[in-house]
Amino acid sequence: MGGLVMGSYSTSLSRVRGLGSSRGGTDHFWQQRLTAVATLILLTFLIYTVIRLAGEPYEVMRAYFASPLVTVPAIMLAISAPFHMRIGMQVIIEDYVQSKGLKLALVMLNTFFALLVALTSIVSLIKLSLGA
Amino acid sequence: MAKTEARPSRPLSPHLTIFRPYVNMMVSILHRITGSINYAGSLLLAVWLAAAATGPDSFNLANALFASPPGLVVLFGFSWSLIHHGLGGIRHFMWDMGLGLTVPAFRFLSWATILGSLLITGIVWAIGLIKWGAL
Known about the structure:
Chain A has 132 residues and is mostly helical. Chain A has a single domain, classed as Up-down Bundle (3 helical TM bundles of succinate and fumarate reductases). Helix content of chain A is 76%, strand content 0%. The longest helix of chain A is centred in the last third of the chain and has 31 residues. The mean pLDDT of chain A is 90. Chain B has one domain: Up-down Bundle (3 helical TM bundles of succinate and fumarate reductases). In chain B, helix 1 packs antiparallel against helix 2, helix 1 crosses helix 3 and helix 1 runs parallel beside helix 4. Chain B starts with 22 loop residues before the first helix and ends with a helix. At the A-B interface, helix 2, helix 3, helix 4 and helix 5 of A face helix 1, helix 2, helix 3 and helix 4 of B.
């Protein structure tokens, strides 16, 4: 990082000028918006589901999750929300964690956590959907 | 050559403590806090789904934990956090589209996010508790 490199009088900017973009500049911005829209819509479905199942016994829950009309949006939410969370938490980590090693470790851990939440939810939903 | 510090001490820009708190700032900070709460809360949803998929015993145990007084407090907080972050998201979409970029609009949208999130959370819980049979 930093402006001047030892033995070179050029600045960081002048060294990268003309090399073209890194092709990744707005990826996270766009993905964050895309998953935000999906999660926002599916949040109404989640609230409906929680109210629908409040106080209901096991059999009613099984019958509810047996329908693809429930399982499919639920799996979509189990994908969009962890995706969104992962990008958001990475921004927080990058903002507050100064040490390079710790930052790298936390960014990795963040991805593992998002995958853990997503896969636990998806596998459970598929099991509920397909019965047994 | 004189020894130079790798990171010379420079004056810091004014930070949180120097500003008078105002509603736009609080809602902006709340957006990050509620995002973090939702991050942790997502694990609760995943655990509930796993319990439901495991069988009646684990399903009933998970439901009993969520229906306990501490469980209900956590669920209430989590639901408010989700709704607050969702409304904050709508606010951000408006800004992305270039809408509401004036100081009075900032102030209005900030209050709308706080009061709207409390109102919607209250309505959702009233419906949920009636459905549950607790009201």
